[in-house]
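We now fix the convention by which a protein and its fold are recorded. The integers have meaning only within a learned vocabulary of local backbone shapes. A complete example follows; check for yourself that the lines match position by position.
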Amino acid sequence: MNNLHYDGPITLVVLDGVGLRDDEYGNAVLQSHSEFIDQLFEKYPWVSLEASGEAVGILKGQMGNSEVGHNALGAGQIIKQGIAKIEDDFKTGAIWQTEAWRGAIENVKNHNSTLHFSGIFSDGGVHSSLDQLLKMLEQAKNEGIAKIRIHLILDGRDVPPQSADTYIRLLEDKIDELKKQAEFPLDYRIACGGGRMLFLADRYEADWNIVKTGWSAMVYGKADQYFTSAMQAIEENRKLSPGLQDQYFPSFVITEPGTDGQADPSRPVGLVQDGDSFIFYSFRADRAIETAKAFTEQDFHGFDR
């Protein structure tokens, strides 16, 4: 290929989602009638590239995505990015010495307040890592944090469409484990949640109402639905709408039970309040920016807070 010579301009065209695989099952590219692309393969030299895992600077076995591919193409070399870069800080413990972590922990201790976590809730590895959230809960326990509330942004997009119950069980099992290990009472609970397409995780300021829905649940305890546990939220919605995908899950708030044993909307278990610390644990920033603005900007115009 080094001996090829072309006159005129050369264009780099990136076709997101197009790849090479011999198996026809589920392979829209191979099954399509793509005469133009086919003739490019027949007429010109070509080479295939790895687009996932360590070849593009992410973890072994991790699928790539458009952002990962664009970064790799732009850099022209293998650089650690996304989850792989953050994982190094977790392995060395450097993450616990960052200004953000130390500031959040010290603020909670100084105000005797609550530490909150939110982010894309799955092990998809595109936006976040469930394992990293669990490690942060354990570190918070080790540093003496007694009260934590978790606000779930259900995924169903980078992972199977109805997998939220699996991740909720893993989270609740970890909380139970930490409670047994702790030398002081732990009050760690899921506070609210919703699907990523409807709850908190807007990007590019496409629809501030998505952020407002999450904000209303976290700050005011207002949501479409109320339950006494996150698993109840999943189970009840699956009964009503068996095909409901996690990413479109309606907003819900977890409350204390009323005298009838049902959720009491006037008693949410974990509102975000002044003096609390809030950690958005997704390592990909695009769906966190608007939430950060809602919490930090004084001259804020996204919605009426």
